[in-house]
Amino acid sequence: MSSEIERIYQQLKKTSAPPIEEKKLAGVSTDRLQESIFVSPAMKKAFDGLDQETKDRLKWYGESYYSRVIDEISSKKVENASCEIAMTLKSGLSVKDLNDDERFLLRTSYGKNWPAQFGRYSETEDDPPTEQPSQ
What we know:
The chain is about 65% helix and about 0% strand. The chain has helices at about 1-15, 20-25, 35-40, 40-50, 50-90, 100-110, 115. The radius of gyration is 31 Å and the shape is elongated.
């Protein structure tokens, strides 16, 4: 058994990859159709056999479904981020420590009156200004 393994090893050891020539490599395009990665030849053949109206309907459905999924995913990220920022405000973070993007997220998720929802005076001040006693 070990002699058989040795023989196979020696055969494989002799095998090598062809040398890479930079000139040939520079002329090769790396563009690849997306469908070549995800669509099997049988599916492509079945799709090609459909009438144009059905192809157009499926294409429209795919595009509209994809955009809804992307929109839903991005809105979840905004909701999650705004919830995290809200949690830090509830834990005592000052609104002065928020950057413009974080304020924008809170305004988008909670409305223009978001500071009041977290017990803050404004988007940039935690407490109302105090009047200085006149002398």
